[in-house]
Amino acid sequence: MAQGGGLLEHAQHPSEAQHHAVPVQFSQVRHCRTPWFNGWGFNLPRGQSLLDKWNLIPEGIDILMTHGPPLGFRDWVPKELQRVGCVELLNTVQRRVRPKLHVFGGIHEGYGIMTDGYTTYINASTCTVSFQPTNPPIIFDLPNPQGS
Predict the structure, then answer these.
(1) What is the torsion angle, in degrees rounded to the nearest 10, for the CA atoms of residue 30, residue 23, residue 127 and residue 78?
(2) Rounded-to-10 torsion of CA 119, 98, 6, 87
(3) Which in 12, 16, 88, 118 has the greatest CB count within 10 A?
(4) Residue ranges per structural domain of the chain
(5) pLDDT tens digits for the chain (148 residues)?
């Protein structure tokens, strides 16, 4: 990995990095970002097509950043009276990847923090459901590994 480890440093073409789960290490913290989502940009239907993208997320990461939430975590849409998170993403996060933090923001109504006892889920949407950028930032501390 190149020094500084940014999302686009590893791609031959800028759009290439947007289509893959890209692991990056900063100090001793490993994180991975992926843009895939159901229903908007980087659309794929739920099911095997989207699961194939989630399967590219590596194990052993500390922070996972996705566009949308897993099913049941900060994904309630009152107007539709339903949860809209992705069950395939939930299974990927809880059964295989198990990051310490999962950060997303695609469901503006779900702004806030939850935990399942192992992973902390942060819906850090900047905008409200009416696309007003008024949600305050969510700030969290990462442990400072010894020797860094």
Answers:
(1) -90
(2) -90
(3) 88
(4) 11-123
(5) 333 434 334 434 344 445 455 555 556 677 676 765 555 555 777 889 889 989 999 998 899 999 899 999 999 999 989 999 999 999 999 999 999 999 998 899 999 999 999 999 999 999 988 999 999 999 988 766 655 5
Residue type, position 13, single letter: H
Q: Is 32 exposed, middle or buried (0-12, 13-18, 19+ CB in 10 A)?
A: buried
Contact 27, 44 (CB under 8 A): no
Closest CA to 77 of 106, 104, 109: 109
Return the amino acid letter for 34. Answer: T
pTM comes to: 0.77
